[in-house]
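User: Show me a protein chain along with its predicted structure.
Assistant: Here is one chain, sequence first, then structure tokens.
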Amino acid sequence: MTAETSQTLDRGLKVLKLLADTDHGLTVTELSQRLGVNRTVVYRLLATLEQHSLVRRDLGGRARVGLGVLRLGRQVHPLVREAALPALRALAEDIGATAHLTLVDGAEALAVAVVEPTWTDYHVAYRAGFRHPLDRGAAGKAILAARLQRAADPGYTLTHGELEAGASGAAAPLLGVTGVEGSVGVVMLADSVPERVGPRVMEAAREVAEALR
């Protein structure tokens, strides 16, 4: 540290870097140990970063990078969408259903990119910016499944009628993208999801994850 720098800002930036380097978040104790400061300092840093949505804490108390980091650059969301669109477009056309990329924003799932199929007579209308609780719908449940099965690939999640009557969904989590929790999925007007859809959604999720790395 030099006389011209801020120790508090330096620590706050180190917190963000530490959180960005882990897929599962860090506790206050873990951050305290890695920064070499006491827990009170870490609590203050996290509280300040949370006010700006740069950090969020889950129900277990683990701190993670918040989507406020993305909002720092207005072009980041468009870049994320741009990176995901080829895989989403291929998925929507292949399955004939609306495809989406969903990211975690606090306790909610936020759709940041949506592609509708061009050849179907009808499909579910879905828009970027749509939010719903993480514990409802395939997109959010796939993310929660990834949290619970940290050491293994959680596969895909299927739901029916949880967000829209008569609609079924399939989603698979993004894996291996540092600092980002999300999922790729499809939603369709059907009583059940055809067998081939789940594996195809997992393939698309891997393609999006690779594009975002």
